[in-house]
C-alpha cells in the first residue's frame, strides 16, 4: 500500500519534470486559484449569497493580487472568508515558487538546478544575484514589512473601529498593501481616509517597497552589510525610472485633473496617492476614478501599463522594459547601430525580451479591450482603464466591474491571471513544448518592411 | 551675374548633400505642403472664405494623401483650387523623390548613387529589385491606371452630372483614388453611390492596385515579361496578408456592425468597401462611420493601423511589418531562438526595423490620442479613430474633424505629415545627424527585464 503510494508520487514527480518552468508556474497559480475558488464557494464563509462566478472572480483577483471585485468583500464574506482571501493574496504576492522553494530550502538546505531555473523564470534576474540570498531576503523582508504595516494601520483604525475589528483590518490591509493587492474591507477603498497622513504614508511605504521589489531590497541589504558593494545598474534604473514616472503622474493629476484641482485640501497628497497607486499597482484609491476625465485616465493607464520593478509584486511591462524601449527609440533616432542606455550597450537578449514583452502586452490590452467593447456597453475609456487595471494587476476601476456581464467578468478573470503570470510566461506555458522537433526547412530570404 | 548664380546653385547643391536622405525627404514634402498652402491661400482659388488654418489643413491632407478635411473641397475651392489640390495629391502620391528622380533619369539617363540611397529610404526595398526598372514601372503604371480610372468614373458620373462636371469629377476622383487620397468633390464621399456596382469596382480596383503598390506590380510585370521569373517572397506575403485581413474586416462588419446588418441590399458590398477603404487607406466611405459601434470602429482602426504594402501609397505599419511582429510572437511562444515566418528565417536587420516601426507607430498613436483628449472633448473612440486615420493617411472620420479646435487641427496636421513620411523617416530626419561624433564611453552590463 505504502509502496504503491510512493510509486504514484514518483510518477507524479516524473510527470512534473516533463513540464517547462513556465508550465510549472502556470499550473501552480491555477491550483491556488482553483483551491481558493472551491473554498470561497462554501456557504459557511459567506455573510450573503455570492454567485459561483463572483467567487471565481474574487479568488482570481486575490491570487493575482489585483483587487478588482464584483462583490463587496466586507459585505459578502465573513471573517473566515476574509481570512481565506488574505491567505490567497499572501500566496499570490510572495509567489507560488518563492514560497515553495523556500520551504524546500529550509528543509533540505539545497536547491536543485531545476528549481533555480523555475525561479529565474518567475523573476527574470541578472545572473549576478544569488538566488538563495534572494529568497531569504524575500521572506524576512515580507514579514518585517507586514508586521510594521499592521502596527501602523492599527494606530489609524483603532480611532474608528472596535479593538478586534481594528486589529483584523490592520493585518488584512497590511498584507493586502505589501502584496500590492489593493483588496479593502472598506467599500469605498480609502476615500474616507483621503486626508489621514499616517494612512497615506503607510500605504505608500508598503506599496512602494513591495512593488520596487526584492531585487532593489536585496541590493540595498547587501550594501548595508558590505559598504563596498556596488549598487547594480538595474537597481539604479528602477529607482530613477520610478521617481521620474511618479513625479510625472503626480504633476499631471495635480494640475489637470478637475476632480483633484477642485479639492480645498490635500490636493498634492491626492495626486501623489493615485499616481503611486497606479504605478505600484497596489490599486487603492482616495478619490473616485469614475470622476476622472479622459486624458487623466490615459495618464493613469500609462502608469499602470508600465508598473514598477521586475522582481516586485507589481504587474505591467516594468520600468526596465520601458527603459529598453526608450533606448531603442533613442538609439534608432540617432542612427546608432548599438542600442545604448546611460552609456551602456544593452545586450541583444535583453532587447529581445523587452520588445517581446512590449508587443505581447500591447496586443493583449488591445484584444481584451476589443472583446469587452464587443460584449459590453460602457464608455471606451472606462473599458480600456479596466483592462489595463486587470492586466497590470492594479485593481482600480471607474466603477464598471460590478456592471460587467458574464462574458465581461470572464475576460477580466483571464486578464488578471495572465497579468500575474506575466504575458511571456503565460504564452510560453501554453505553447512551448519541451524539446520540440523542429523539422522546418529553414530558408533565408529578405523581406521588405 | 551668371557666374554668381551658378555659384549659389553650387553652394545649394553642396548644402543639400549635407543632408541625410531622411532630411531630404522631410524638407521635400515640407516644401510641397508649404507651396500648396501658399497657393490655396490666394483668394482667387476660393468659392467662399477659407481660414489660413483650414488651407494649411487641406494642403497637408492633400500632399500626405490623407483626405481628412475641415472644409468641403467642392463648396470652398473653385475649379482652379480643386486642380491645385489634385496636383498636390498626385505629387504626394507618386512621391517627391520618385517624381524628381524620374525627371532626372529621363534627362540624364543615369542616376547618382546618392539618389539611389534616397529612393531606398522612401521605399525600403530588397536589393534584388532594380531601382531603374522600378521607377519606370511606377510612372507608366500610374498613368495607365489613372486614365483607365477616369474613363470608368466618367461612365458613372455622366448619368448624374453635365459633361464638363462629369469629366472633371472623373479625373479628380481617379487621381484621388489611385493615390489613395480619398479626397472627394461630394460632401458625403460616395454614400450616394453605395449600391452602384461600377463605382464600387472602380474605387476598389484603383485603390487596391495603388496601395498594394509598385513592388507587387513590378514583380508581376516581370513575371509577365519573363515567365521563368519567380514571384518574390515579399510579394507573396503582401498578397496573402492583404486577402486575409480584408476578409477578416469584411466578415466582422458584415456580421456585427448594426448600421450594416440593417441594410436591405448591398450589405456584403458595404462591408467589403469600408474594410477595403480602411486597409488600402484610400479613405472613401459608402456608409457613415459616425454610426459604427465601438468594437467595429476598433476593427477599422486595426485595419488602418496595418495599412497595406511598403511600396504602395498606403500608410500604416504595413503588412510586412505585421507579419514580422506575428513571426516574433509565434517564434517566441514556441521557444524558438530564430524568428521564422513561412519556414524562412527573418534577418535580424528586418526584425529591428519591424519592431522599431511597431514601437514608434504605437507610441505616436497613443501620444496623439492623449493630446487630443487633453485639448478637445469628444468620445474616446472617435478620437482614436481620427488619430489612426490621420497617421495611417486614411482620411475616414466619425465626423469630428470639422469640430476640432485649433490645437486639435494642428495635431492632426502633424500626424498626417508624419504618416506620409513614415514614422521612422520622420524621426531620423529630425534627430539623425550625418557622421555624429560618438564619444560615449560604452560599457556592457546586464539589465533585468
Ligand atoms: K493590485
Ligand atoms: K487616404
Explain how this protein is built.
Two copies of one chain form a homodimer. The first copy, chain A, is an all-alpha fold and 449 residues long. Chain A has one domain (21-429). Chain A has 20 helices and three strands. The N and C termini of chain A lie far apart (65 Å). The model of chain A is unreliable at 436-449 (pLDDT under 50). Chains A and B meet through helix 12, helix 15, helix 16, strand 1 and strand 2 of A and helix 12, helix 15, helix 16, strand 1 and strand 2 of B. Bound molecules: potassium ion (K) (2 copies).
Which short descriptors sum up this protein?
homodimer, 449 residues, mainly alpha, two-stranded antiparallel ribbon, 20 helices, 3 strands, disordered C terminus, binds potassium ion, membrane (chains A, B), transmembrane helix (chains A, B), cell membrane (chains A, B), Potassium transporter TrkH (chains A, B), monoatomic cation transmembrane transporter activity (chains A, B)
Question: Brief overview, please?
Answer:
Two copies of one chain form a homodimer. Helix content of chain A is 66%, strand content 1%.
- The number of helical segments of chain A is 20
How big is the Rg of chain A? 22 Å
Total separate domains of chain A: 1
Q: Which ligands, by name, code or SMILES, are bound?
A: potassium ion
Structural class of chain A: mainly alpha
Give the proportion of residues in helices of chain A. Answer: 55-70%
Which whole number gives the mean pLDDT of chain A? Answer: 84
Strand percentage of chain A: under 5%
Overall strand count of chain A: 3
